Amino acid sequence: MRKHWMLMIFSVFFVSAALFSEPVSDSWTGSASFLNRARIAGVMTASQTSGEPGETAGVKRTPGTRKPGAGILMSAVLPGTGEFYAGAWLKGIAFLAAEGLLWTGYAVFWNDGQDKEEAFHAYADLHWSREQWENLYSSSDPSTHSLPPTKTQQYYEMIGKYDQFAKGWDDWFSGGPALTPNRDAYESMRHDSNVQFKRASYCAMGVLFNHLASAFDAAWTIHSRNRRIESSLSMEMKPVRSDIVPFMTLRLAWSLSY
After folding, report:
1. CA-only gyration radius of the chain, Å
2. Nearest to 72 by CA among 88, 90, 86, 87
3. pTM for this prediction
4. How confident is the model at residue 38 (pLDDT cuts 50, 70, 90)?
């Protein structure tokens, strides 16, 4: 589980760094050659082409753009919020609902696994005796495992998993099968508990994937939205000396707002 969260943190960090460090793209109206031609043609005045300090001359920033890095961090913390930030409400609701369902599933499966674990622990304490096993166990019996001195998770696993400890079950008898009815019932209970814990771990992995998927989707959505908002193509008729000349302008200034 810890490895899963570390992977998510590093992935979000590197993607955020890459997006924050993206170079600023120029627009055609912001290029020096275009500005010089505009001055010569008399279409743009000196105040229009000089620009304010710290800004690219001749480029207007379009309001409503979003920062991909902010969307990534928001979705990394809570999936769906980056989509809300980008204005993609339906996708945001979907990611947020998936987050809620996955955490609910994790809690349900984990608690059920804990309950089943307590049940098979109590069953083992009732039907398996260490004292009986030690009294009946012979030095001639095959021995490949050493039973822990305390009732740890390994203790409860070994008494049901290995035939070496079959003589400790209260329904074992000489010449009978190693898998006694009580031991078989115990193993079924332990299996059911492990299944629930495994399902909880699947939900935890789903949570990790949901965070990563929402973070990447938020970045993609914001990039697409910014391009859609700030990319524009326009044509105007401008007087140039004694003629009317058509001017076509393509603006690609979306990255200037980051």
Report:
1. 34
2. 86
3. 0.64
4. very low
Q: What is the 3-state secondary structure (H, E, C) of the chain?
A: CHHHHHHHHHHHHHHHHHHHCCCCCCCHHHCHHHHHHHHHHCCCCHHHHHCCCCCCCCCCCCCCCCCHHHHHHHHHHCCCHHHHHHCCHHHHHHHHHHHHHHHHHHHHHHHHHHHHHHHHHHHHHHHECHHHHHHHCCCCCCCCCCCCCCCCHHHHHHHHHCHHHHHHECCCCCCCCCCCHHHHHHHHHHHHHHHHHHHHHHHHHHHHHHHHHHHHHHHHHHHHHHHHHHEEEEEEEEEECCEEEEEEEEEECHHHHC
Q: What is the pLDDT of residues 110-159, one digit of tens each?
A: 999 999 999 999 999 999 999 999 898 876 666 677 899 999 999 999 99
Q: Which residue has the tokens 């609910």?
A: 104
pLDDT tens digits, one per residue of 204-251: 999 999 999 999 999 999 888 877 655 555 667 677 666 776 766 655
Structural domain boundaries in the chain: 2-128+169-257
pLDDT confidence of 167, banded at 50, 70, 90?
A: very high
What pLDDT was estimated at residue 116? 97
Token look-up 């603006």 returns 251
* pLDDT computed for residue 209 by the predictor: 96
CA distances from 243 to 182, 239, 246 (A): 102, 6, 10
Read off φ and ψ for residue 246, nearest 5 degrees. -75, 135
Q: CA 192 to CA 52: how far, in whole Å? A: 69
